[in-house]
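Quick question: what would this complex look like in 3D?
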Amino acid sequence: MIETLRWFAVAFGLVLALGGPVAPARAAEPLTWDQALQQARGETVYWNAWAGDERINAYIAWVGERVKALYGITVEQVKLTDTAEAVSRVLAEKAAGKTEDGSVDLVWINGENFATMKENGLLYGPFVRELPNFALVDTRDKPTTLVDFTVPTEGLEAPWGMAKINFIYDSARVHDTPGSIPAFADWAEAHPGRFTYPAPPDFIGSTFLKQVLIELTADADQLQKPVASDSQFARVTAPLWAYLDRLHPSLWRGGRVFPASGPAELQLLDDGELDVAISFYPSEAQSLIDNGRLPKTARVFVLDDGTIGNTHFVAIPFNARAKAAAMVVADFLMSPEAQARKQDPQYWGDDTVLAMDRLTPQQRALFTAIKSGPASLPPDRLGPVLLEPHPTWMTRIEAEWARRYGG
Amino acid sequence: MGATLRRLSEPARPAAGAPALRLPGTGDWTRPVPALTLTLFLLPIGAGLLGTLLPAFGWLPALGGRALGLGPWRALFAEPGLGRAVLVSLVSGVGGSVAALAVVVLFCAGCHRSRLFRRLRVVLAPLLAVPHAAVAIGLAFLIAPSGLLARLVSPWATGWTLPPDVAMVNDPWGLALGLGLAVKELPFLLLMTFGALGQVQAAQRLRTARALGYGPATAWLKTVLPAVWPLVRLPFYAVLAYSLSVVDMAIILGPSTPPSLAVLVVRWFYDPDLSLRFVAAAGALLQLALVAGAIGLAALAERLAARLGRRWLAGGGRGGGGRAADLAGRTAALGALGLGLASLLGIALWSVAWRWRYPEALPSVWSAQTWLRHLDALLPTTAVTFGLGLAATLVALALVVGCLEREQRGGRRPGRGALWLLYLPLLVPQVAFLFGVQVLAVRLGLDGGWLALVWSHLLFVLPYVFLALAEPYRALDPRFGRAARCLGAGPDRMLWRIRLPMLLRPLAFAAAVGFAVSVGQYLPTLFAGGGRVATLTTEAVALSAGGDRRVLAVYAFLQTLLPLLAFLAALALPAWRHRRRRGLRLPS
């Protein structure tokens, strides 16, 4: 018994010790590309990535094979249901004073998760400018490769792919598709129970809310700056809530139940429970058809005034164990080889971040060889790109959504 | 009368076997085992609870919390959807476990004379082996409006050319989750009840009652139930606690806006907004209180039932022929078990489907592609799951045998308190202490390592292994041991040459149970593995958020197959070892 008590005393001490002062993160000089290449061989990169889509997981596994062959790096995907899990893990490690040999080497990230990590000094870098393939990135016509949800990336995350909201429907069953957010509400009323969106904070659900907000609010330019005050938030977002109050009764399950994620919503589309579903990757519909997960009659539409588009990135936590190898993997992800495969609907269907005019003819050929298929819209018919609001809007909208519809 | 009832409800202790065999104290390796086991158990739970308790009152200096206060609680109660989340937990958790118990009582009372009653024992163990997540995944395939059941009868019988817009899964009240819990917990409760029936001389009680003219169902309820309940009480509390705080099943079958309290707590723990860590800690304690309150209510309900039941018992009503009870018990038990089996069938079908749209009753395009494509990922994941289960089971087996052997040698049986301690990891909600454990493991540099993983699985494997092994171990005829002693064998030789070989069957069964428990663990793997270690269960739950249903089915199928193989091995190994020993073979 005494033994047991002593054990408890030790445990108690340990827990209290957790409250001790935290060593400040060492601001180490970022590695140069040559140093990174030298140190990377033999390292294992624990890549924390949202794993809700098997096609993406398969792509990541392919990346692992390639960097193993090219650089002798092993990639282990740590499968997340929400990227916040990785942010939380790094935070927990920082809280426990673990400033090196952390468990996360690379994280697939953007938006509010990036903002949180940047703000809390949880990121390693700036490292992006060291990566040779970054020079191929289209930073001019794709400004979101440098500004993530209005937050400057400052070389702390490397662009990986371009996402853009689009809508998938089954053309065998649906013949009229809405061209705007107000028209969506009319369409839903005419077809009750046949549309829904994933429950925020799922990123596709949250993005749909931002799409509604941008299209309906009179003060869209204010969204590019942080939320200034409660009254401003209430005023700017009032049209969003009025719209949702009107829309929800005609949604799937009367707006009382929402699918857990984007892929879950696409599954409902294939099950015949929905007529229209939201996608974030313009070639996703084609990709799902090729994979036997949507009927061959699935097609895509976008809204007339444009839909939200953004860039997703990879970043390296400040305490990553394999920083060098993580940099090399981040560079490989921006290579024409990796980018072209990612854009191919056969594998993923995620648009490239590269500028075609910065590639050699051979590299360009990799992209022109991609068969986009009948369910993909060509770039000129994807419509204008709307910019993401500042992350504070997303956080506040998610909280307000939970308050209004989550109870 | 109260005294009578209490006497009736006392578990009959098996006749005390050998008088305590006092052995020379030196060199007895079993002596420290019980203390070691308890330490291994209590240390992480105690430290983990503390690591949750302090932040719940604002103490977590690493995140700037240096003042004790009620701030986290105020924030918790201001969280939108909290009330609803608690309600969902209660509806699904209490509803599911009470439904499972009701079916058990109904079935035992109504059908204890039937052939089905004896046959069911055989199929229960494998059903017990099916992991929670797999049951949930299969059930979701089955009962969704576009699921297997609807497809079988649509559109020819129902006219549903499109699936009806009804929330059969993920419903806002957690009813589907409650159903899933009832289906999954029923085999466990039934098995525990069957085990207990043997200890209370149920057959004699029934014979006496029947001779006095009681109907079969009434006889069971009046004479067996009060005796059996004290032995089933703790397992029921464990089911109740588990159901109220389950995470993996709730993610798959439960509502999402808001989810049940346990899921909400896990969400807060993982939120990038650090201030929510305090809310999460307070929520974890609320979860603990919820479980404690539910167990307290169950105890109160038991008293009430005992008080009301007295008059009924003493009233002398003989009851009818029990035909209605037989039918009801049969329907309920077979219905629930049938749902479980049909869920597994759905999983198997989806894993080999390529195209399978509503309302086709069977896949329109079949393919082994899903299996082949994911083979590279499946093999290492399966290997990790297997290795982890094996390690945790072996350690648990060693500790349990050590404890039970100590009990034999010391001639003392642990009291009721020890049984409660054993049940502790099953009664304390996982979310309430696993977070504290994780912070501790990070601090000690153990997170993500095998030590932390095996240890965290051990917490949940060990109680089940103990439950499975204790009775057979204690029931082994002490005269075998005495004979060995007379022939000059020391205590260790007696253990290795007599007891363990003779107990091979229960040992193998306990190992299979432990292995199955380990395979099914979700939260402990997630926390102790630092998110880096993927088992079939963590993969399946991650995929259930909407990944490819066919791949999900492959994982769920494998997740079910692994423990089933363990149970098959547990049957085959003793049969093979004992093929030349008629006395040790199962009576056929």
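Answer marked as accepted. Confidence is low (pLDDT under 50) at residues 1-25 of chain B.
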